[in-house]
Amino acid sequence: MSAPTPLSVEEDELALLTDLYQLTMTQAYWKEAMDGVATFSLFFRRLPPERRFMLACGQQHAAARLSRLRFGDSALSRLAGTGLFEAGFLDWLANWRFEGDIWTLPEGTPVFANEPLMEVEAPIAQAQLLESLAMNLVQLETVLASKAVRIVMAARGRPVVDFGMRRMHGIDAAVRGVRAYRTAGLAGTSNVLGGLRHNLALNGTMAHSYVLAHDSEREAFRAFARHYPHTTLLVDTHDTLEGVRQVIELMQEEPELTVKAIRLDSGDLGELARGARRLLDDAGHDEVQIVASSGLDEAQIAVLLEEGAPIDAFGVGTQMGVSADAPVIDLSYKLVAYAGEPRVKHSPGKINLPCPKQVYRRRDDQGRYLGDVIALRDERVAAGEPLLRPLVKAGRLVEAEMARADDAPERVADALPRFPADVRRLEAGASDYPVTLSPGLERLQSRA
Amino acid sequence: MSAPTPLSVEEDELALLTDLYQLTMTQAYWKEAMDGVATFSLFFRRLPPERRFMLACGQQHAAARLSRLRFGDSALSRLAGTGLFEAGFLDWLANWRFEGDIWTLPEGTPVFANEPLMEVEAPIAQAQLLESLAMNLVQLETVLASKAVRIVMAARGRPVVDFGMRRMHGIDAAVRGVRAYRTAGLAGTSNVLGGLRHNLALNGTMAHSYVLAHDSEREAFRAFARHYPHTTLLVDTHDTLEGVRQVIELMQEEPELTVKAIRLDSGDLGELARGARRLLDDAGHDEVQIVASSGLDEAQIAVLLEEGAPIDAFGVGTQMGVSADAPVIDLSYKLVAYAGEPRVKHSPGKINLPCPKQVYRRRDDQGRYLGDVIALRDERVAAGEPLLRPLVKAGRLVEAEMARADDAPERVADALPRFPADVRRLEAGASDYPVTLSPGLERLQSRA
C-alpha cells in the first residue's frame, strides 16, 4: 500500500457508497419488472434520550447530491468485478437516473420523533437506491448540528468557536461538520478548510508547543503578539495566573502591543477566570477578554455561567466534534407507500406512519409554537405552517428552495425562542411539546 | 448553493484541513527563523473508561498521507484570501515539504495509555503542520477498530459483518472505517465501496421494504431466492416465526431453491433464534443458518451466546459505526523535544514523557505478553520487542514497512491471545497490564 488509497470519493464512485442489498434488491426489481412508484420516509422513531429535539440539517445538501447520483464507468466495472450482477442490469444502471421527487424539511428545522426529515417518491428502483447514502448524509449534519445548538444555547449569547476538527470522525465529518455548526449558530471555527468552504469565520490562538519551543513564556508571548496584533495568548502552559501576569507585564513593557484575549485551557476554569479577570482589571486591562476551552460541553458551560465565571467566549472541540453523548440517531428510511397503496411494517409497539405526509407547525398569535400535526400530504389540516417542501421535482433541483439553505442560521435563531422553554432545556428528558397525528393519518394508522 | 459544495477533499486542498493556529504558529516560526528539530509524540493519557486497550489503527495510512502533504495553488490562494499571511510566507509554503521522520506502531497494535502511537521528528515548522490532520486521521481508524475488535471478541469465532455505513459520520468515516473493521477481524461488510477499496468481503441480505413491496412475504421470498441462490432471507417483517414457516414451506414447494440463512432483525433475538432453529431443524433444514442484527453491541452479543442462542453470525451497525460508547479518544500531539532539549508541559497530576521514545513489549517464553516498558528511544532496555518503527525517513516512505499494513488482521489475531485475560475482558474497567517507565525515562520525567 505504498500508494495510499484515496481519501476522497470521486463523483463517479459515490453511487457505490451504499449497502450491497440496495443493489441486489434493485437488480431483483429490475428482473421482476417492478416499477411502481414508492414513497420512502426518512425519520427517527425516538429522540436520543439526551436530546429534546434534533436540528434537521444536511437534507438540502443531501438532496442536491442524491439527485445527481450516477453509476459511472469506474463504478460499473467495479460492480461487474463482484460477479453478483448481470450484464443487462449493469447496462440498465449505466442509464439509471433519479427522476422522482424529494421533499425535505428546511435546513435547521427543529424536529421531533416520527416527523419526516425527507420523503422520496419515485419508481421503487430509483427511490430504493438512495437509501443508504441519504441516511449517511443527513445523519452526520443532523447529529452535529443538534449537539452544537445546545452548546450555543448554553453559552447564552457568548460566541462559541469550533475547535473539534482533530477529534471528528475523519475528513468528511471535519469539513461538512462546519456546515452544521454554522447552521447551529457557532461564531467561528479553527478549521481552515471547513470554515473557508462553509463560510464560517476562522479563529485561532496558539498551542502549548509554541510556548514550549521558546525559551520562556514571556518570549513566546512577545513574539506572537508582535506578529499578530489583537491576538489571543494561551496562558496555562506552566501556571495559569502566572501566565496572566506575564501578559500584563508584557503589555506594560510594550504598550503598543494589543492583546485581545487570553485563553484558559486547563484547571478549574471558573476559579481561574475569576482570578485572571481580577488581575487584568486591577492592571487596567478590562478590555482583554477571557476565552475558555478544555473539553467543555453544554452542561459545563451552563454551570460556569450560572456560577458567574467571567468568560467571554468558548472554544469547544471533543464533545461537540462527535456529539459524544448522542453520536448517532436511529434514522429510518421506510417504505410507506407502493403503487398507490399504503405499506408499512407492522411492529408491535412502534408507530409506522403510512403514505406521503406533511408536517404542520402551529403557532399562536404571538408566533409561539403550539405543537405539530403530522398529516397525510394531501389532507387539509386547519392551521399551521407546512414544513415539508419539494426540493427535487422530477429529478431536478428547485433552485429557489436550494437557495434557502444558506439562511439556515437565521431561521434557527428565529425558531428556537418560539418553542416552549421545556423544549430548550439542556437536561436530558422528553419534552412535552405536542406532536399529534391528523384525523386522516390516525384513521389509516389504526387500520394498519 | 445549487452546485453542492464538493463532498471530497482534493489532494491539493488537504493541507488546509488543519486548525488555523498551526498556520499562524508556523508563520511565526518562519518570521522568527526558528528551525530547530522538534519531536512530537501522538498518544493518549487515559484509556476511555469503556476500553481496556485501544487497537492502534490508521497510523501507516496517515503517515503515507502526511509525508505527501503539499500546499497547492488552490490552497495558497485560499490562504491569501484570508489576509492573515504574508506573501513571503505563502511563497515559502509553496515549497514546504515534510522532510522529517515518522515512527509508528504497526497497524493493529494493542496500545495503552502514554504509549506513543506515532512520533514525528522534523524542523518545527514541518512537524507542527502535521498535527491536526495526523490526529484526525489516526483517531478515526483507532476509535473504530478498538470498538470493532470487542465485537469480534464477543462473537467468539462467529463471523461478524459490518452493517454500519448509514450510521457512520459521513463519507470518509464510512469508507475508511471498513479498513479499521478489516484490521479488527470482521468477516465482511455491507458497504460496497468500503469493501471494494479495503478488501473486505461484501455481504447483503434484503430489507423490509423488499418484502413490503411484494403482495406477500412468501412472494417476496420466492422472488429473491430464485434470483439469488444461497441467499439470506429477512424473516421478521410481520411475525418472525411465521416468516420462518414461510421459508420452510417455500423450500418444500421448490426443493431446488437453496436458502443459506435467515436473518432476525427485531424482537427477543435469543428466544426467536431458538424458536427458528427448532422450526428449521424439525423440518430437516439444519443447514440453514441464523444471522442476527438489531442494534447489537458486544455486551448483547456476549449475553446471547452465554444464554446459548443458536446464532451463527452477527450483523452490527449502529453501535459499532460510531463507537457509540467511546466515540472519541483524547489523543495528544505534544512537543517532547526541541533543538536537542527535552520539552514538556508541566501539568499537575499528568504524566508528560519527554524526548523521543520507544515502547518495548515483553514476552515470557511461551510468547505471552508480560508488560510494556516505555523508554527513551536510544536507551538500552534489557528485553522486549521494540514496537515503534520508522515508517517515513527524511520525508520518504519506507516501503517495506508500508507493506506490513496489509497484514494487520493477522497480527491482531496473533497478538490478542498473548495478553492476560484481564485485558481482553469486555466489561468496563482498567486492566492491570503493566506499563512502566524505563530507568532513563523515569529519571528525566521526575526531573521535569
TrEMBL record, chains A, B:
Its EC number is 6.3.4.21. Pathway: Cofactor biosynthesis; NAD(+) biosynthesis; nicotinate D-ribonucleotide from nicotinate: step 1/1. Keywords: Glycosyltransferase, Ligase, Phosphoprotein, Pyridine nucleotide biosynthesis, Transferase. It comes from the Bacteria. Residues 160-321 form the Nicotinate/nicotinamide phosphoribosyltransferase domain. GO terms for molecular function: glycosyltransferase activity; nicotinate phosphoribosyltransferase activity. Transiently phosphorylated on a His residue during the reaction cycle. Phosphorylation strongly increases the affinity for substrates and increases the rate of nicotinate D-ribonucleotide production. Dephosphorylation regenerates the low-affinity form of the enzyme, leading to product release. It catalyses: 5-phospho-alpha-D-ribose 1-diphosphate + nicotinate + ATP + H2O = nicotinate beta-D-ribonucleotide + ADP + phosphate + diphosphate. Residues 16-138 form the Nicotinate phosphoribosyltransferase N-terminal domain. InterPro entries: Aldolase_TIM, N/Namide_PRibTrfase, NAPRTase_N, Nic_PRibTrfase-Fam, Nic_PRibTrfase_pncB, Nicotinate_pribotase-like_C. Belongs to the NAPRTase family. Catalyzes the first step in the biosynthesis of NAD from nicotinic acid, the ATP-dependent synthesis of beta-nicotinate D-ribonucleotide from nicotinate and 5-phospho-D-ribose 1-phosphate. This is Nicotinate phosphoribosyltransferase.
